[in-house]
Amino acid sequence: MIGTLVLAGTPIGDIADAPPRLAEELAGADVIAAEDTRRLRRLTQALGVTPKGRVVSYFEGNESARTPELVEELVGGSRVLLVTDAGMPSVSDPGYRLVAAAVERDVRVTAVPGPSAVLTALALSGLPVDRFCFEGFLPRKAGERLGRLREVAGERRTLVYFEAPHRLDDTLAAMAEVFGAERRAAVCRELTKTYEEVRRGGLGELAAWAAEGVRGEITVVVEGAPEKGPEEVGPEELVRRVKVREEAGERRKEAIAAVAAEAGVPKRVVFDAVVAAKNAAG
Fold first, then answer.
1. pTM of the entire structure?
2. Keyword Cell cycle on this protein (predicted)?
């Protein structure tokens, strides 16, 4: 019989948040693939569990190489448990490659639901939660980071990001530049841990606060773009949106059509704005 791949959520801070099934799966799995075997050892000790199965490392550096090995274990009938350092595997953590490879071989994939920094931060942010999108980590390079932010400048859903503490001030400053300093946001730090903090305010205000230095695990939640009527989107903004799409690889014709639909204006209005900007630039 073919085995089963189990993705298990682990606590993002407070060990008491560990789901009851996690201990059962840790004790009974044939193979445990862990992002950090030392953190796994601390987790099992805290839960009072002694794994019977083989423990292997599965992290960004060896994910590609180890995936075929784990798939063969699954095809051979093993129950393989995948855990990452915190939260759900595959969500900005190792796991996607293994899930995709397992599905391709018709292996059953299931999960032990657990804590999620994305949903926890979203719920605590005080921002709209009916529609949201998770953007993960932004690029480290300033130019690439600005480009990625410009791609979602008009996104009306609430945005959720992960960020390293030493880059938080630069990221918030870039967000204030692209989204506007008054756009509401929440910085969620050390969720479920002793020094948990949720700082809410405008992006400009939060950027100034972060410039003093911030520590811990960070999740940033940003309010979506306000809904604008056609008359509120000026020529400069239309040209900027076309440029962003062209830089992302779209042909000008398609970019103009997409921006016109997004802004609720005729394509001719966007086309004229682009031509006028080109003539003004010489």
1. 0.78
2. no
